Amino acid sequence: MSSVEIRVPQLPESVADATLVAWRKEAGQAVTRDENLADLETDKVVLEVPAPVSGVLREVRVPMGKTVKSGELLAILEAGATAAAGAPASAPAPAAAPAAPAAVKPATTSISDIKLGPAAQRVAAEAGVSAAAIAAVAKDGRASKADVLAAAKGGAEAVATAPVAPVAPGALVTAAGAGARSGRVDQRVPMTRLRQRIAERLVQAQSTQALLTTFNEVDLSAVMELRSRYKDNFEKKHGVKLGFMSFFVKAAIEGLKRFPVVNASVEGNDIVYHEYFDIGVAVSTDRGLMVPVLRDADLLDFAGVEKAIASFGKKARDGSIALEDLTGGTFSITNGGVFGSMLSTPIVNAPQSAILGMHKTQERAVVVDGQVVARPMMYLALSYDHRIIDGREAVQFLVTVKECLEDPGRLLLGV
Fold first, then answer.
1. pTM of the prediction?
2. What is the DSSP letter of 352?
3. Please, which residues have CB within 8 angstroms of residue 214's CB and are 6 or more apart in sequence?
4. Which entry of 274, 286, 298, 386 is annotated as an active-site residue?
5. Beta bridge partners of 106
6. CA–CA separation, 40 vs 18, rounded Å?
7. How far is the C-alpha of 190 from the C-alpha of 171, rounded, in Å?
8. Is position 369 annotated as part of the catalytic site?
9. How far apart (Å, rounded) are the C-alpha atoms in residues 17 and 9?
10. pLDDT digit string (tens) for the chain, length 415 residues
11. How many CB atoms within 10 Å of residue 200?
């Protein structure tokens, strides 16, 4: 048997460091080759640290919450060893200053089966919650921040009788004074690295670009009728559902072809016209908004677009999306309609120069051929960098998208 050093893998060139947000194994536990040992969160993605060989994790050198760099030593693994009798179940490594939790009922779920979001992982690390405590309160294989706090107080039963445990020293303030309601608390939780990066980029876009938004509305009757007619055959043939996003991606590409400046970006005093169409499609996850990119989207058919979007959505939600999936992009589409938004002004994903915002489809009274009829209508918004895109081009781009969606045959005929 020999000792193997577990080090931080080589981080992508654009990433300086990472935060160790979760240990998936603890010292003394057996691991198998390629099994995930820890999660490293960068400002873009979560990276896994796989075991290079099978054996036993003998020593953990870095606690959760610490910032690490490429090549830094994380742990020592003894290759070929087997776990001793009574070795602990898979669990997060203890925090730097653990606090002993109260007794809880025996865990029925292994910690390796529990999904913890970044906030829950951070609370577990800071409060020193044991693996057994978290497993005991986990529901359906998931433990929220509230579950971890409950585990820190001795299990779910303690929530009703005990105040919420502090997230960090000085981070939780209870209201005092006559008439104050019991349980009035504030919680201070650090932003995840992804949320910090999102905030940084949004502020950067608004401070460096001359952002303006133009609006229009589209009648989706034709798209909905076409989708209803062919969705079953489409799914049987291609193995993926026919959604609405593929129509919007195709319509946007047609608009970008007609008005190339909307697909351009600013570099110094130059305008860079991109002669390809890498379309970013915003995906909402527990960690924040991600925008995976459909490369050469103009070369994909409807099935190709739907398959790529479904794959990106799954990877983004389970944390397996790769950094290269999120980099680049010449234009973006975001759909606030899935959350019920009627109208919004999306912020451009710099260094891109424009973003298309979709919204909720709702039946509204409109006039068609002199008659008032009910139609499924959606408001569209195009936010753009007015430094290089004039109002004429922005409005005509949005009109092109509207025309393609109201007459989907244009997408097939290229007219």
1. 0.64
2. B
3. 381, 382, 384, 391, 394, 395, 398
4. 386
5. none
6. 6
7. 10
8. no
9. 11
10. 688 888 888 876 667 788 888 888 888 888 888 888 888 887 767 788 888 888 888 888 888 888 888 888 888 888 876 765 545 544 444 444 444 444 444 444 455 556 666 566 666 766 666 666 777 666 656 676 667 777 776 644 433 433 444 444 334 444 445 555 666 888 887 777 777 777 887 888 888 889 999 999 999 999 999 999 999 999 999 999 999 999 999 999 999 999 999 999 999 999 999 999 999 998 887 767 788 999 999 999 999 999 999 998 888 777 777 778 888 899 999 999 888 999 999 999 888 999 999 999 999 999 999 999 999 999 999 999 999 999 999 999 999 999 999 999 877 766 6
11. 11
**Encoding tokens for residue 117?**
């979001």
CA 95 – CA 65 distance, rounded (Å) = 8
Backbone torsion region of residue 141, taken as left when φ is above 0, otherwise alpha when ψ lies between -120 and 50, otherwise beta? left
Determine contact, residues 57/4, Cβ cutoff 8 Å. Answer: no
Give yes or no: 390 in active site: yes
Residue 384's closest CA among 393, 373, 375?
393
Dihedral of CA atoms 167, 168, 171, 176 in degrees, nearest 10, equals 70
- Cα distances (Å, whole numbers) of residue 83 to 1, 57, 109, 407: 13, 9, 19, 65
Contact yes or no for 163/177 (Cβ under 8 A): no
CA distances from 18 to 48, 70, 152, 155, 251 (A): 11, 8, 27, 32, 38
Partner residues linked to 36 by β-bridges: 50
Residue 220 tokens, joined:
């989706």
CA 14 from centroid of its chain's CA atoms: 19
What CA–CA distances, in Å, run from 211 to 332, 338, 345? 15, 24, 10
Q: Which domains does the chain have, with CATH numbers?
A: 2-174 (2.40.50.100), 194-413 (3.30.559.10)
